[in-house]
Amino acid sequence: MNSQPQKRTISEIIHQQPLSRFQIWTIFVCGLVLVLDGFDSQAINFLAPSIADATHIPIHTFGPIFSASLVGLMIAALATGPIADRWGRKWPVILSTLSFAAFALLTVRATTFRELVVLRFLTGLGLGGAMPNVVALASEYSPKRLLAILVSVLFVGMPLGGYVCGQLSALMVPRWGWHSVLYVGGAIPLAIALLLVIVLPESIQFLAARGKDKERIGKILARIAPEFAAMDPNLVAIVPDRRHEGVPVKHLFTEGRAPATLLLWIPYFMNLLLIYFTGSWMPPLLREEGMSVSAGVTATAFISLGGIFGCLFEGHLVKWRGASVILSCEFALAGALAASLALTSAPYHAVLVMTFLLGFMMIGAQGGLNAQAASFYPTSIRSTGVGWALGVGRIGSIIGPLVGGWLLQFGWKTRGMLLFGAAVAACAGVSILASNLVGGNITAYASPIELDELPS
């Protein structure tokens, strides 16, 4: 009988071991980056009415300002995924965090329309570079059995950051002005980025896929499964993942992945259009309806608060009923809530409930889509797969605020704007149903998770 223990992949070890404190800490740190990301990406939405008053820039011209950061997000999401798949996840996350922190601080000095557009674009470059690499890094430390739940919970950071930003804006802007919120949004990420240099690990699966630095792999592995390292300290020569040579993007469409890739991109586009349309224009629309700036900001912040709970429950819901059913229901309910806001004159507390539920549906659905993207693509192209899905979705997020500005210029009122949002939600739901007709739901496509990471 062969007494030598069988060599196994990093994926097998992670998937078969209980979740360690080291993995929990790594996923927590990744979530913290997304909290900061959510804070800075939403800040301009909450501050827009105050910035417009202070700079005398008409609020109906803020569409390009809202969209500038989203253009940066799209470009960075498309570009940094392939970079991270080639050079690693850690440093793109750190450099992206430093970038959006620095430009958030510089935005404090903006006084003109052009300066706001340029600085929001540069801030977006940093924001877009952080998200796909954080998702890839966290997913590579998550067992398969928990991946949908952990990645969905990870995305609590985005709406949590937006909610905190909204609450701080309502508190700080009347006292210290809109600049104070950006000081917070720049200083904290700057400090956290420096901390990440010390505490954030590189992806062990990425290191194994490159077949280098086995001593480093062994140290990380010992923190994940110390009993495994103690049993055979030479067993760090893990069978590496099969590498995908050439341009990473093309591999999103090879080996049978093309239908799943396209079917992920469509709801990404529609849902991010809806999220950023409502998030960007809800404060000025509610102000148009007679609410104070603080009341409008608080109501909009409840979208993020609902999103927190949506992300917490999304993974469990998807595991319970499947992605297709849950996503279709969420988009249908989001459309119904947007229509209700448009067609009823609800009291303020009812508006808070409806915006909370709207955020639960929209942002929860985004967490479900992100979990599916992270689970489908193998390690060697995971950052690229997640980054390009987010990048294509960002086209929708760019169009959303711009369409809102155009509709306002054409004289649309709050009711028409919210009905447009309901129509977008309906289109997102139809895209999920269409995926079943074309060839099965997203969950079915996610079944060959990391097959190329198993030993040959």
Overview of the molecule:
By secondary structure, this protein is mostly helical. The protein has one domain: Growth Hormone, Chain: A (Up-down Bundle), CATH 1.20.1250. It is 78% helix and 0% strand. The protein contains 18 helices and no strands. It has helices at 10-16, 21-55, 63-87, 90-107, 113-139, 144-154, 157-176, 179-199, 204-210, 214-224, 226-231, 258-288, 293-321, 323-343, 348-376, 382-409, 414-439, 442-445. Helix 2 (21-55) runs antiparallel to helix 8 and helix 6 runs antiparallel to helix 15 (348-376). The longest helix has 35 residues, at 21-55. It is globular and about 65 Å long.
What distinguishing features does this structure have?
456 residues; mainly alpha; Growth Hormone, Chain: A; 18 helices; 0% strand; disordered N terminus; disordered C terminus
- Classified in CATH, the superfamily is MFS general substrate transporter like domains
The figure for the number of domains is: 1
CATH architecture: Up-down Bundle
The count of DSSP E runs of length 2 or more, i.e. the number of strands, is 0
Rg (CA only): 22 Å
CATH topology label: Growth Hormone, Chain: A
Question: Overall mean pLDDT score?
Answer: 80
Please summarize the sheet with the most strands. Answer: none
Compact summary:
With 456 residues, the chain is mainly α.
Secondary structure: elements and pairs:
Blueprint: H1 10-16, H2 21-55, H3 63-87, H4 90-107, H5 113-139, H6 144-154, H7 157-176, H8 179-199, H9 204-210, H10 214-224, H11 226-231, H12 258-288, H13 293-321, H14 323-343, H15 348-376, H16 382-409, H17 414-439, H18 442-445
Helix pairs in contact: 2-4, 2-5, 2-7, 2-8, 2-12, 3-5, 3-16, 4-5, 4-8, 5-16, 6-13, 6-15, 7-8, 7-13, 12-13, 12-15, 12-16, 12-17, 13-14, 13-15, 14-15, 14-17, 15-16
